[in-house]
Structures are given as C-alpha cells and as structure tokens.
Amino acid sequence: MDVLQLARWQFGITTVYHFLMVPLTIGLSVLVAGMQTAWVRTGEQRYYKMTKFWGKLLLVNFAMGVVTGIVQEFQFGMNWNAYSRFVGDVFGAPLAMEGLVAFFVESTFLGLWIFGWDRLPKKVHLACAWAFSLATIASAYFILAANSWMQHPVGAEIVDGKPTLNSIWAVLTNNTALAAIPHTIAGAFSVAAAFLVGIAAWHLWRKRKTDDEHRAVWRSSIRLGGWTGIVAFAVLAITGDVQGKLMFEQQPMKMASAEALCHTEQPASFSIIAVGDVTSENCEDVKTFNVPALLSFLAHSDFTTEVKGVEDLVTEYQARYGTNYPDDPQLGELAGKPIDYVPNLPVTYWGFRIMIGFGAISAGTGLLALWLTRKNKIPDTKWFPRLALLSIATPFIANSAGWIFTEMGRQPFVVVPNPSGVDGVWMFTAQAVSRISTGEVWTSLIALTTLYAVLGVVEVFLIRKYVRGGIEGVIPPKTDHDQEGKDELAFAY
Amino acid sequence: MTLETIWFCIIVLFWLGYLFLEGFDFGVGMLLPILGRDNTERRVMINTIGPVWDGNEVWLIVAAGAMFAAFPGWYASLFSATYLPLLLVLLALIGRGVAFEYRGKVDSERWRRNWDRVIMIGSWVPPLGVGLLLTTTVLGLPLDEHGNRIGGAFEAVRWDTLLGALAVVGFALVHGAAFLALKTAGDLRERARLFAIRALPVALLPLFALLAVVQWREGALWTLVALAVAVVAAVVAWRKLVADRDGQAFAALGVTIAAAVVTLFGALYPDVLPSTLDPANSLTVAETASSPYTLEVITWVGAFGAPAVLVYQGWTYWVFRKRISAAHIPPVHTP
Predict the structure, then answer these.
(1) CB–CB contact B298 A96 (8 Å)
(2) Cβ distance B238 to B175 under 8 Å?
(3) Which neighbouring-strand residues pair with A413?
(4) Pairing mode of beta strands A162-165, B283-284
(5) What ipTM is given for this predicted complex?
(6) pTM (2 decimals)?
C-alpha cells in the first residue's frame, strides 16, 4: 500500500474508534447531569445512586474519548500536511475554537466534577456537571462545522490559488452543519439510551424475585433510556431526511451511491435491500424490495422528479473536474491516471442501510422496554434482558456506518465540490496526503491500532466489572473509618 | 505589531502554558516510582494532579490547534517532519490518560503496578518528544521548497534537538518535585523537597546548555537578557527550596521556563521553522500565516476565551488548594 491508502486506513480506523467513545460520552454526560439535577431538586436517593452509577461508567469511557481525540488533531499535520496547508485558513479556525471554547471547559469542569463531591456547594457542583456536558456538545458542534465544510465548502474564496476564509459566520451556520449537528447529537443520545436500557434491564431481571433495594434506580434508568431512545430516533429520522435532501443537492454522487443508482431514473425507486453485487452492470436487478418513487420523494419531496444515476454523474464530473489527475509528481502513483469519481458502492450502499436499520432496532428496543415496564411491571422473561444487552451494540454500529458512509461517500474528494458550495473550492484526497515514507505511516498505523485494540479490551472489561458491581460498586459502604478520618477526600484516584 | 506577530506570541504563550502546567504533572508522574514508597503514597502523588492534569493537557491541544488556524504551513511542516517522535508522544499520552483513570479501578497489586508503569512511561516520553519538537522548530530541518522534509524519518533527531528533549525532561522533573513539595504534607513532602534540591543543579543543565547553543547561533541582546533571567530564577528557586518556601520555589521555576521559552522563540522569530538546506526554504511568520480575516476571527475568540480559561482553571487550583497526605486518602473501593 502507498502512503495515501495507509493514511486513509489510519484516518478511518482512528476516527471510527474515537467515535465509539464520543457519542456515549456526549449522551451519557447530559443524562447524568439531568440525574444529578433531579437529585438536587428532589433529594431522592435513587437519583443520587443513578448519578453515581452512570457517572462512573461515563468516566471510564470519557478517558478513552479524550485520549483518542488527541490523535485526531495531530493526524492532519502528520498524515495530511498538503491538506492542512491548502485549507488551514478555513478549516483551522473551527478546530482552534473547539479547543479554546469547548475542550478547555470540558476537561477543567470534568476534573471539578469528579473531585468536587463534598468540596463544592451542591449547586456549584451540579453546575460543573452541566458545564462539561454542554461543552461536549459545543465540541461536537465545532468539529462538525469543520467536517461539514469538507462536505460543502462555504464562507471562502480563492485567493492566490487557496481557499481563504471570508465569513466565519457562513462556516458556523453552514446548512450542512446545521443538519448534521442535531443528527449526530441524536445519534449520541441513542447510544446512551441503549446503554441505559440494556444495563438496567439486566439488573432488573437479575433481582426480579428478591426485594431489591435498588429496583427504583434501575426502573428510573430503563424508563429514562426508553424515552431518550424514542425521542432520539424521531430526531434522527427528521434530521436524516433533511440531511438527505441537502445531500441530493450538494453531493448527488454520494446519494446516488447510497442507492447504488446506476442509471438516472424518473421517478426513482428506493431500494430496501440488495442480494448480490451492487456494483454489477445491471445493479437494479440485484436490488430487492424496491419502493417505487420513494427515492424521488426523499430527494425532492415529490414523487415524480428525476434522480440522477452514477453513470450520468460521472460524465458530468469528468466534464467539470477532468478525466485524469494532473501529471504532478507530488501525486505519486496516481499522477496522470484516470480519476475514479464513483465512491465504493458496496460500502456506501450497505453503510446507508446499516445506519438506518440498526438505528431503528435500538429505538424498537427502547419502545419495548417502555411497554414491558409500564405500570410498575418488571419483565421476568430472559429473552428481554438478553435482547436489551445485545441492543447496546446497535446504535454504535449505526453511528459507525453513518460516518463511514459520509466520509467514503465523498471520495475521491477530500473537500467536495458542490453546486451550492463556493465555486472552485475542492481538493482530491490524493492531493491531500503528506510526502512522507510508507514506513512512517505503517509504524503509526500498526502502533495505534494495536494500542487501541488493547485499550478497547481493558475498557470493555472495566465497564463490565462496574456494570456487574451495580450500586454497591460505586458507593463505598459506611465504615468506622468515616468517623476517624473526617478529613478524607470524598473521591481520590 | 502585526496580527501575525501577535499570533506568533500567542502560540508561544500556549506552549509556555503547556510546559509550565503539564510540566509539573509530567514531573509527578516521572517521580511516581522514585518518591512513592507504597500504594498510598503513590495515590497521594497522583491525587495532587488528579483534578487538573486533563485541563493542563488541553494547552497542548490548543497550542497545536492555534498553529493550525494561525500558521497552517508551520503546523503542516513541523508535524509531518517530526512524525515518529510525535507518534511516540501521542502513544504515551494515550496510555497515561487512561492509566490515571483506570489505575484504581481494580483492587490488585499487579494491576496497579502495570498502570504505574504506563504512567511512568507516559510521563517521561512526552516531555522528551515535546522538547525535541520545539527544539526542532527553533533549530530547523532540511526542508525543500514545498516545506517538506528531505531525508529520513529521523532527520529531527540530532545532538542539539536531543539536548532540547533532555532540557524539557529535566525541567519537568524538578518542577514536579517542587509541586509535590508544595502540595503534599509530612514525610513525602520532605523527600520531594530534598529531591528537588539535589536534582535541580543537574537536571536544569541541559536546559541552560540548550539556551546557550541557541543564543550562540541565533540570539540577540534581548534574548541574552531573557537567558540571564532564566538562570537567576533557577538559582532563586534552589535557594527557596533550601529555605523551605515551596510556593516561591515553584513560582521561580515558572519564571525559569517562561524566560527559557522567550529566549528560544525570540531567537526563532521571524522564522517559524528554518530550513537547514537553504535559508530561502525557511518557513516564516509572514509566509505561513493565515489571512488577516482568519487571524482577526481567532483573535476575537482568543480575546474572550483565553481570559475565561485562566479564570476557571485558576479557580480549580483554588478549590483543590489543600495539601494532601496519606491521611486524606480513602480506602480502595472497587466492585
């Protein structure tokens, strides 16, 4: 593999991995802040226990989110230095803002929250929880604004051959970003919701026959998870539709690949599933359960309009952006070679379907949980806790598939040229990569992947341990020790 | 002063903030196996930095992010040219960050010993790497006309950049010991203070050697003044340690690193990354800077954001200002 491919693999692996931690952190931190608010307002012990239990799981996960995020920021300079030089004027600004405005708040107030129990007045301590949980959302906002600029470049003009920022407001209110943010945040909440439902269902079931003093904690958790999951899914569906329509306009090739729509259709049908190779000559034949005219509706809100297929789009792109890469030695193997404008069809087609399908499964489990726990009921069949535990994985898979679809769908561009983006602002992925040796990228790819794998095992081990430990595992029992050492810290590593 | 120069200074300030703040928490991690005699003492040490190390680390993120936004060419060339040392820093920081959080999560000697090792490696490697990186940006690299590194992956590893690596490690070690003297009580505090007194004259030598090299090659009269301030502050720090004034010693060490950073980057300006092949290939403040509009935007953000950061981070240090001793450490509780 050459540097380009290695750097792409590394970016893909580190990003998807980072984004396993991030949504859980975002969703859970807001829910934990909510639990703590309920405790401060009502003084009820179950809310205190919920805050402690879910807060501990949040912290185990938060650490991984932070450390894997550092890699993301440095990677642009290490592996994608030509990209950084080309777009730094625009792309760097939201990244710097993220650090200065959001990430400082997040890290500092998280420290205050962890160690501030009993040190800070109750309400100030609660405010710390809100400060860091809202800052996680602010972080997401700036990062998504940066990413959305790659999907739909706005607020810039070409000066001396480089995109130059001329309106930060346009970048921060990019319609692509405004659609992506609620979608991504809702995705984060669906992860946290499935986490709550799965774990609480297991605890409820485990002590269903005994009189469990913590039952109220698990009941409140499963109800909160169920409702969060359903609301999140509703937001996902609505914002997904908005995003889809924007993408048909901004990145028609991505959406045509999401459907593996080879030929232009009018009206266009939506494919539910495919059997066989979606890249084959007659890709319509392999798609089963087509819903007639639905794709036209999804794209343009009416059932009759034409939706352009991959083949026609390729012709358009070739006319506009050339048939071959420039004969520039900096492009390495690809110099002067024909440009493949079609993203990887199986990945985009299946990525899109996995995202929607798995997202729906997790919402379904949430709905089921609410039904089974209605009117103080406790589900006593074994299939439900099993299903709920398994469902924890589904929104994670949906999120990853969504990101893989979004990022692979913009290939071969790193900054996608758009009909509604700034004219002339675009860049091929092949032009973006650093001129470094393959040995360097191999080393980092192997080292990071190995370390991530090891730490992934440790994190899952610890989360399991704390999940099994339940409430007793996070609230130390009262002992004689408490009387002697009044000076003791409420929490210490 | 142009906006470009102001942003050069702001980035220097971010790096200084990073070296000053994470400098001492690296030091604490480096000293973990040296000063921590048992698990409780090691927990005392870790908890002196527990609430703040994560916030300290953000200074690195923001230093790099600000370089990206204000001087994309600097960010792009430096980080790709120092690829492998930077990778080691990242790997070490990943391990270190989770180690603090995970160390106490299982009640087993073996588990704790392993994570202590990770904390130790995670505290020695990053200052080495950051020292190497910052020295490289001051002393330069063989760069071609595109700003890309010519030569192999280890081009940034030379005797003078290694001196920079040792300089930051030496500083972190002393700074961490002084911080422990300031933040702990009893026996541990006394040992930390004695360690700082003994280590200081040796550990700060690489830093002063580096400053001398830089001053000799690129320095001006005013950087010589800054160098002198760094030396004097180090002497003051040593005397304050001997006189049992930890707070003042810690502050004096802060002055040392501030003056050292001023000397280094003062000598670098107006370059940001010199080319050792051909001065025409050197990256300068003017060439690598973003457009005036982008600089203006981030100046507004910085003007409101940075003071707020200083206020709430300062408040964190105030909230957790008490000295910690073994008596404050609660028993281990895991599920």
Answers:
(1) yes
(2) no
(3) A428
(4) unpaired
(5) 0.93
(6) 0.94
